[in-house]
User: Which sequence fits this backbone?
């Protein structure tokens, strides 16, 4: 479970989640006034998002593809037809 790839993927997800939580805290602050922002609260929100994301990755590990922090699997691109690019629901004739 704790392979180098797993740790990299989990950290990438956690950093993204922390950044999203920080932006949410900044945006929710009194009209986005950065001078009045309580930075310790914003940092706590970011840290909380980071920790929750890592925990989610750890809990998800046994259920998704082996060695990844994901719950879902990507479809095998070699066996599925790509969506038609012409906007129709029917695949183009070749």
Assistant:
């Amino acid at each position: 479970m704790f392979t180098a790839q797993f740790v990299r993927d989990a950290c990438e997800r956690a950093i993204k989640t922390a950044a999203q939580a920080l932006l949410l805290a900044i945006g929710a602050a009194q009209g986005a006034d950065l001078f009045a922002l309580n930075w310790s609260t914003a940092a706590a929100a970011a840290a909380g998002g980071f920790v929750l994301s890592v925990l989610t990755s750890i809990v998800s590990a046994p259920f998704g593809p082996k060695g990844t922090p994901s719950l879902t699997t990507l479809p095998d691109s070699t066996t599925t037809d790509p969506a038609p690019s012409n906007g129709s629901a029917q695949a183009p004739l070749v």
Summary: The chain has a mean pLDDT of 81. Residues 14 and 54 are 6 Å apart (CA to CA). The chain has two helices and no strands.
